[in-house]
Amino acid sequence: MDSRLLETLIAVAAKGSFVGAADALEITPNAVSQRLRVLEKDIGVQLVARSGRTVRPTEAGHAVLAHSEAVLRQVRDLRTAARGGDIAGELRIGAISTTLTGLFPQVLERLSERHAKLDIYLEPGTSAGLYDRVVSGALDVAAIVQPTFEMPKSVDFVSWRQEPLVLVAPIGERRTDVVAILETTPFIRYDRRQWGGRLATSFLEAFDIAPKERFELDALDAIVMMVSRGLGVSLVPDFAGPWAEGVQRLPLPHPAPVRRIGFLHLRNSPRNHLVSVLTSVAAEQST
């Protein structure tokens, strides 16, 4: 069976239409439809059902989808094993948003220059979501916030970058007393459900600060933009950027919480030699 057929089924289920799947796979909708017909003929059952422009998996389709990721992972493992130690093949990388905008462009540029046979698949997400994707084997590696809980021995975490929390305030704020600013200025909270957002909550609790909360967001770039418009102040990691104009970053009183970014991967992955190439190039970027 051509592995592209299963990839197409996964894309159709995820996007809910042939057009959406075609965009994701960078093929035509007709090619999507043709691949599904071939897969259905090969398996012998109908896998998707149309309702107007919406396409949904049938019961049999859901059953096939439940095993598809594992099958594709095994196919990738075989290809990697066949290449031995060559820096070639597919590497599936997850990344939180701030690393995608501030760090990964340079890393991917260097990887493409040095290893032209390395195919990169990049998936955005939250630290919690990407952690689960790596543990399940759906991703080879992910750049995430270091978990605060004890990780299983089956995974390894390679530190990449340390980002102390800072107070982000409008450029016009003349005070330097962080606690006074937080107690008297509208506060834009970094979503406490995010692993990084919990650091801000722990700082507020440690200093017994009850800010006048205005918004709670999970997107750091949106938080910084709102601060630049004078809508409040926020506690965020000193991430790689880019940063909006019109803001300043004030250091927090000691000890300031630190968000640690690193690469999570399975210890026994057959693509760990590719992961090592990624982490080495990323280490150059952080120096």
Describe this structure in words.
- The chain has helices spanning 3-15, 18-25, 29-43, 59-83, 97-102, 104-114, 127-135, 178-184, 195-206, 220-228, 272-286; strands at residues 48-51, 54-57, 89-95, 118-124, 141-145, 155-170, 186-190, 212-217, 234-237, 247-251, 258-266.
- By secondary structure, it is an alpha/beta fold.
- Among the domains are: 1-72, Winged helix-like DNA-binding domain superfamily/Winged helix DNA-binding domain (Arc Repressor Mutant, subunit A, Orthogonal Bundle); 162-258, D-Maltodextrin-Binding Protein, domain 2.
- The strands form three sheets. Strands 3, 4, 5, 6, 9, 10 and 11 form a seven-stranded mixed β-sheet that branches. It has a two-stranded antiparallel ribbon with strand order 1-2. Strands 7-8 form a two-stranded parallel ribbon.
- Helix 1 packs across helix 2 (18-25) and helix 6 crosses helix 11 (272-286).
- The longest helix is centred in the first third of the chain and has 25 residues, at 59-83.
- 31% of the residues are buried.
- Residues 1-58 form the HTH lysR-type domain.
Topology:
Blueprint: H1 3-15, H2 18-25, H3 29-43, E1 48-51, E2 54-57, H4 59-83, E3 89-95, H5 97-102, H6 104-114, E4 118-124, H7 127-135, E5 141-145, E6 155-170, H8 178-184, E7 186-190, H9 195-206, E8 212-217, H10 220-228, E9 234-237, E10 247-251, E11 258-266, H11 272-286
Parallel strand pairs: 3-4, 3-5, 7-8
Antiparallel strand pairs: 1-2, 5-11, 6-9, 6-10, 6-11
